[in-house]
Design goal:
The complex is a heterodimer.
Chain A: H1 2-36, E1 41-46, H2 55-64, E2 73-77, E3 89-93, H3 101-105, E4 111-113, E5 120-122, H4 132-136, E6 143-144, E7 151-152, H5 169-173, E8 179-183, H6 190-197, E9 213-216
Parallel strand pairs in A: 1-9
Antiparallel strand pairs in A: 1-8, 2-3, 4-5, 6-7
Chain B: H1 19-45, H2 52-75, H3 84-87, H4 94-116, H5 118-125, H6 129-144, H7 146-169, H8 181-204, H9 213-241, H10 245-250, H11 252-255, H12 258-281, H13 283-287, H14 290-317
Classes of the chains: A alpha+beta, B mainly alpha.
Chain lengths: 223, 320
Amino acid sequence: MENDGKRRAFLKYIGLGSVTLGTAGYSVALETEKKEKKPHYGMIFDQNKCVGCTDCEVACRKVNAVPEGQVRLYVENKTDPATPMGKRYVRVSCQQCEDAPCVAVCPSKACHRDSKTGIVTMNPDDCIACKYCIVACPYDVRFINEKTKAAENCNFCLNTNLDKGQAPGCVEACKYKALVFGDLNDENSYINQILHVKDSVRMKPTYGTKPSLRYIPVVKVGV
Amino acid sequence: MNGAINFTHGFSHGVEWGWPIAVYLLLAGISGGALIVALLVRFYKKQQVDTPLLKAASLVSFVTIAFGMVFLVGDLEKPLYFWKILIHYNFTSVMSIGVMAISIYIPLTLIMCLYMFEKEISMVLAKKSQLVSYFAMIMAILTKIRPFIEVLSVIFAVVICAYTGFLISVLVRFPILNTAILPALFVVSGLSAGTASAGMVASYLFKEDTHSSDLKTLHTIEWPIMAVEIMLIAMLFVSLLVGNEFQQTTTVAFKSGIYATLFWVGVMGVGFGLPLVLNFALGKKMASTHMAFYLSGMASVLGVLCLRMFIIYAGQTFGV
């Protein structure tokens, strides 16, 4: 009988223990699921649709008050001189790397990843303008803003349009829908639907910086 | 499909880190190099007295690193925001790690100077008797930990020299900079410039005979250091030559243009050629003159400055 009591107690503790552990485990799982729900903003530039009108550049400067003569976003004409009718343009801007060298090298944490959106952005007040981020960027898409004297990059209009719930200025301004902006972590987002059906590339992928910008290049058809 | 699209336009203006950075890197190299050499000579020869060489090296290391720091901060576009580095510390940043190392290293060089010039400082302070007693109290404590401070100084001097290399070798966009050899090259060239500077200051300010035992030792180790320096530069060049497409295009920097001139005239001619000619080619009589001693020392320092300039400018000019 004495043994029976012990067994009962043992079973009781086992039961209680598994319930508590189970609940704890479940809540931890829930939390990690919540963490995964954090957005990962990305952008597609479709070279097939871009006509090089530079409306995006104009909108970017206006929305983000970029000083005259400076740009966060530039449309480079990469048309092959041998085939002048086959126009090709490329968007030059911050690639929003997942492993961003600028964030890694900034000595004052001015260049940082926004905690809510995960977007690589700048706190101009903390920037000492040492230019370390500018030389560390494999894409050479950072610059010192002449007015704020702080380094700057395309941050998907984080403090301007995105703050108001709008798409980035360049995306809004593009008449040809060459730019698509969205959350890569959201399976149902339009950007993911496009990435599912179209081939896209990242710039200089060998640097291992995992850029969030995707490019859909013009390719020869019927090879 | 990765070759299908790319852009070549950049937002920076070519060389973003210009000559002040090269000077700053040189000053840090001289500082570290001088202290390493003088302290190693002291350890090796088991010296108990403060030799003119150690006095010179301590003074040189403190003055150069202090000036280097001023250069670095002054080179910023917002120099008055410098303190932000110290409160927003970023452990993944080589610059932050370097700032921490420097903020330990500068006090170390200062303490080394205090050891060297304890008498002189006491004499200056003698007018204010209270200050003298405070100073004597501090020195009593410092003297007890002197062996520890000396070893720590050597370690941090090496760290500072290496830091100047790591600072720019993490810049992946530039093949000449993004090499494993760069920090080693900066340590060795720092030793070269530091040896020359410490020797010259020991002779000029502290009246050390240019043929004294210590300066003879410096004169002997000067050549192996130079040989290693040349070897490392050659290795850097070969690694670029046999590297990928981008690395290969940077070898032009050694072959033609203004940077090739800087390299062959400045680094090779002045830095290595002139000291060799002065000390070996013109006979023993010429080699033992004071003029040859100072000229060859200055040529060594100038050569290392040219090397830093070449690395900084050619490095940032030939990007991927």
